[in-house]
Design a protein that fits this description.
Elements (H helix, E strand, L loop, with lengths): L1 H16 L7 H19 L3 H4 L10 E4 L2 E4 L1 H11 L3 H4 L1 E13 L2 E11 L5 E12 L2 E12 L2
Parallel strand pairs: 1-6
Antiparallel strand pairs: 1-2, 3-4, 4-5, 5-6
Protein backbone atom coordinates (compact mmCIF):
# COMPACT_ATOMS: atom_id res chain seq x y z
CA UNK A 1 0.00 0.00 0.00
CA UNK A 2 2.84 2.42 0.79
CA UNK A 3 4.29 1.83 -2.67
CA UNK A 4 1.03 2.84 -4.40
CA UNK A 5 0.61 6.01 -2.35
CA UNK A 6 4.26 6.90 -2.95
CA UNK A 7 3.91 6.21 -6.70
CA UNK A 8 0.77 8.35 -6.95
CA UNK A 9 2.53 11.16 -5.08
CA UNK A 10 5.50 11.03 -7.50
CA UNK A 11 3.24 11.04 -10.55
CA UNK A 12 1.26 13.97 -9.19
CA UNK A 13 4.38 15.98 -8.31
CA UNK A 14 6.10 15.28 -11.61
CA UNK A 15 2.92 16.29 -13.44
CA UNK A 16 2.90 19.60 -11.62
CA UNK A 17 6.61 20.19 -12.18
CA UNK A 18 6.64 19.36 -15.89
CA UNK A 19 3.20 20.50 -16.98
CA UNK A 20 2.65 22.93 -19.80
CA UNK A 21 2.68 26.61 -18.97
CA UNK A 22 0.14 28.85 -20.65
CA UNK A 23 1.59 30.96 -23.46
CA UNK A 24 0.57 34.56 -23.10
CA UNK A 25 -0.67 36.36 -26.18
CA UNK A 26 2.19 38.90 -26.18
CA UNK A 27 4.86 36.15 -26.31
CA UNK A 28 2.94 34.11 -28.88
CA UNK A 29 2.58 37.12 -31.17
CA UNK A 30 6.23 38.13 -30.71
CA UNK A 31 7.53 34.67 -31.65
CA UNK A 32 5.15 34.37 -34.58
CA UNK A 33 6.23 37.80 -35.87
CA UNK A 34 9.90 36.79 -35.73
CA UNK A 35 9.24 33.52 -37.57
CA UNK A 36 7.32 35.25 -40.36
CA UNK A 37 9.96 37.98 -40.57
CA UNK A 38 12.47 35.17 -41.14
CA UNK A 39 10.22 33.81 -43.90
CA UNK A 40 10.13 37.25 -45.53
CA UNK A 41 13.92 37.70 -45.18
CA UNK A 42 14.55 34.27 -46.69
CA UNK A 43 12.30 35.06 -49.63
CA UNK A 44 14.35 38.22 -50.25
CA UNK A 45 17.54 36.13 -50.29
CA UNK A 46 18.75 37.78 -47.06
CA UNK A 47 20.33 34.99 -45.02
CA UNK A 48 22.04 37.43 -42.63
CA UNK A 49 18.67 39.06 -41.84
CA UNK A 50 17.09 35.58 -41.52
CA UNK A 51 19.74 34.72 -38.91
CA UNK A 52 18.62 37.60 -36.65
CA UNK A 53 15.92 35.27 -35.31
CA UNK A 54 18.60 32.99 -33.85
CA UNK A 55 20.46 33.60 -30.61
CA UNK A 56 23.90 34.90 -31.57
CA UNK A 57 25.75 32.52 -29.28
CA UNK A 58 27.88 29.40 -29.26
CA UNK A 59 24.98 27.82 -27.35
CA UNK A 60 22.81 27.77 -30.49
CA UNK A 61 22.35 24.31 -31.98
CA UNK A 62 20.97 23.47 -35.43
CA UNK A 63 20.17 19.80 -36.07
CA UNK A 64 19.46 18.56 -39.56
CA UNK A 65 20.13 15.50 -41.70
CA UNK A 66 23.91 15.88 -41.27
CA UNK A 67 23.71 16.04 -37.47
CA UNK A 68 24.08 18.92 -35.04
CA UNK A 69 25.93 22.16 -35.74
CA UNK A 70 26.86 24.32 -32.77
CA UNK A 71 27.08 28.09 -32.71
CA UNK A 72 25.50 31.00 -34.54
CA UNK A 73 28.38 31.51 -36.97
CA UNK A 74 28.55 27.82 -37.93
CA UNK A 75 24.77 27.77 -38.47
CA UNK A 76 24.98 30.88 -40.66
CA UNK A 77 27.81 29.37 -42.70
CA UNK A 78 25.81 26.16 -43.16
CA UNK A 79 22.85 28.12 -44.54
CA UNK A 80 25.14 30.07 -46.88
CA UNK A 81 26.85 26.88 -48.10
CA UNK A 82 23.69 24.79 -48.62
CA UNK A 83 21.62 27.67 -50.04
CA UNK A 84 24.35 29.43 -52.00
CA UNK A 85 22.06 31.08 -54.57
CA UNK A 86 18.45 32.20 -55.03
CA UNK A 87 17.59 29.09 -57.07
CA UNK A 88 18.57 26.86 -54.12
CA UNK A 89 16.83 29.14 -51.61
CA UNK A 90 13.54 29.19 -53.50
CA UNK A 91 10.42 30.57 -51.83
CA UNK A 92 9.87 29.60 -48.20
CA UNK A 93 6.54 29.19 -46.43
CA UNK A 94 6.10 28.28 -42.76
CA UNK A 95 3.06 26.76 -41.07
CA UNK A 96 2.94 26.71 -37.28
CA UNK A 97 1.46 23.48 -35.97
CA UNK A 98 1.81 23.83 -32.20
CA UNK A 99 3.39 25.97 -29.51
CA UNK A 100 4.17 24.77 -26.00
CA UNK A 101 5.50 26.86 -23.12
CA UNK A 102 8.11 24.89 -21.22
CA UNK A 103 8.65 27.79 -18.80
CA UNK A 104 7.98 31.54 -18.80
CA UNK A 105 11.22 32.03 -20.80
CA UNK A 106 11.30 28.91 -23.01
CA UNK A 107 8.76 28.05 -25.70
CA UNK A 108 8.83 25.11 -28.07
CA UNK A 109 7.26 25.41 -31.51
CA UNK A 110 6.50 22.66 -34.02
CA UNK A 111 5.85 23.54 -37.60
CA UNK A 112 6.11 22.64 -41.23
CA UNK A 113 8.10 24.31 -43.98
CA UNK A 114 7.61 24.34 -47.74
CA UNK A 115 10.37 25.37 -50.10
CA UNK A 116 9.18 25.98 -53.65
CA UNK A 117 12.07 25.95 -56.13
CA UNK A 118 12.70 25.56 -59.85
CA UNK A 119 15.23 22.79 -59.18
CA UNK A 120 13.11 20.65 -56.85
CA UNK A 121 10.67 21.53 -54.10
CA UNK A 122 11.36 20.54 -50.52
CA UNK A 123 9.26 20.29 -47.41
CA UNK A 124 9.58 19.02 -43.90
CA UNK A 125 9.05 19.66 -40.24
CA UNK A 126 10.83 21.69 -37.61
CA UNK A 127 10.97 22.01 -33.86
CA UNK A 128 12.26 25.33 -32.57
CA UNK A 129 13.10 26.07 -28.96
CA UNK A 130 12.83 29.78 -28.25
CA UNK A 131 14.45 31.53 -25.31
CA UNK A 132 13.51 34.92 -23.91
CA UNK A 133 16.46 37.15 -23.05
CA UNK A 134 15.97 40.78 -21.98
CA UNK A 135 12.34 40.64 -23.14
CA UNK A 136 13.39 39.46 -26.65
CA UNK A 137 12.76 35.99 -28.11
CA UNK A 138 15.45 34.05 -29.99
CA UNK A 139 15.75 30.54 -31.40
CA UNK A 140 18.26 28.59 -29.26
CA UNK A 141 17.65 25.18 -30.86
CA UNK A 142 16.43 24.28 -34.35
CA UNK A 143 15.75 20.69 -35.41
CA UNK A 144 14.66 20.58 -39.04
CA UNK A 145 14.07 17.46 -41.10
CA UNK A 146 13.02 17.21 -44.71
CA UNK A 147 10.41 14.74 -45.80
CA UNK A 148 9.79 13.08 -49.13
CA UNK A 149 7.45 14.88 -51.51
Amino acid sequence: MKFSIYSCFLVLCSGLLFSQQPINEKDSLAITAILFQQQEDWNKGAIDAFMEGYLNSNELVFSGASGPIYGWEATRERYKRVYSDRQKMGKLKFDILHMLALSPTVIQMQGKFYLTRTIEDAQGYFTLNWIKINDQWFIISDHTSASEL
